[in-house]
Structures are given as C-alpha cells and as structure tokens.
Amino acid sequence: MTWKTAVANIPYGGAKGGIGCNPRELSITEQERLTRVFTQKIHDLIGPHLDVPALDMGTSAQTMAWILDEYSKFHGHTPAVVTGKPIDLGGSLGRDAATGRGVVLGTEALLADHGKTIGGQKYVIQGSGNVGSWTAKILHEQGGIVKAISYVGGAVKNDSGLHIPALVKHVSKNGGVKGYAGGDSLDYASILAEDCDVLIPALGGVLTRHKRSCHFL
User: Fold this and answer.
1) Is 157 designated active site?
2) pLDDT for 39-90, tens place per residue?
3) Confidence of residue 165 (pLDDT cuts 50, 70, 90)
C-alpha cells in the first residue's frame, strides 16, 4: 500500500491501525462507540493531507461514516478524511467493488503473460468478504470457474464451479458459507491446498511451499 500510494501521490500512508475485537460479537451501538472513541484518539494523526483511513477487515461504509462524523467534531465537516464512506456522504461510485476488480485485473494481466484468459481457469479464493466476494463475482461473470471459497469458520467447494451469485446471497443472509447447498463443506485451512489454476489468498504468511497446489498465485 505504501508503494502504491506513493506512486499515485495520494496520502494513504499504508500504515495499519485498528481495534482488537470481533465486530460480529458486538452490537451496532457497541461498534459505533468503539469507532468514535478510536477516532477521538487519532483525530490529530489523520486528515486529507496527512493520512486517510480506508476500509479493512471487519469494517464497512458505516464504520467510515462514524469516523467522518467524529473527526468533523474536531476539524469541521471534512469528507476527504476517509475513503469507503457512503455515497450520500461523498463516497465514490464503484468503491465497493474496486479492490476486488483490481484483483481480477491483476489476475488477467498475469494470465495474459502466459497466453491465457480469465475464462475456463479454476480459482480458489481465501475469504468471501467484500474483496473476496467481488473478486469471485467478477471472475464468475467473465467465465472463470470458482471451485472453492472460504469465509470465517468454514469453506465450501464444487469442482464443477460454485454458483457465485447464489453463494454471495447465502453468505449475506447467514453470515458465512456453512450450510450452502451448492457445494461440499471444506476445512477452512485446507482450502489453500486445493488444486486449481489460480490461488487468491487474502492474508499474508499463510502459504508454504508444501501447501501450494496451484499454477498461479
């Protein structure tokens, strides 16, 4: 992130910061209180010309809206203090899909170097949150075969290809892939060892030489 933003000359420093908690175990009110107090502690360290917080794991457009609102109490209304905020507060159209679309574009460029296209390749994706779900949807739309995907607490696979629109609806409704009827249940950790053409991990430090069963990473 530091290198990407430096090349583009935009103030997303690449630093990481957050709150050690599981948002799924907190009420919306508790999440809001935590976010606002966190913002109070860092408001003088962030800003449009200093460092601009962005979405990451466990956060949403609502999280960014709380940060914007709390920051504005100290510095006046400043929509540019965060990215990933709701459209009504100055957010960007297409922001939800942007990172996942970037993953697909990078994958497309990699495959092109080897004379291949997105269509017909088999993909394994670690994570089906915002980035993973959009990556899966776009790959599916372009003819890719997403054979396995994971989410917190489990994974699911179908060697013939998962029906991604149905799976995304299931995850949204049930909070995970558990119980999805269009594939077989799979251990969360073992998804990284599934045979595929392209493996798309979500986290660093999860791969070893012995775990890879893919042609491209």
Assistant:
1) no
2) 999 999 999 988 888 887 788 899 999 999 999 999 999 999 998 899 999 9
3) very high
202 vs 217: CA distance, rounded Å: 11
Q: Which of 16, 85, 178, 211 is catalytic?
A: 16
Maximum Cα–Cα distance for the chain, whole Å?
54
Euclidean distance between CA atoms 212 and 193, whole angstroms: 6
Identify the CA nearest to 19 among candidates 37, 46, 44. 37
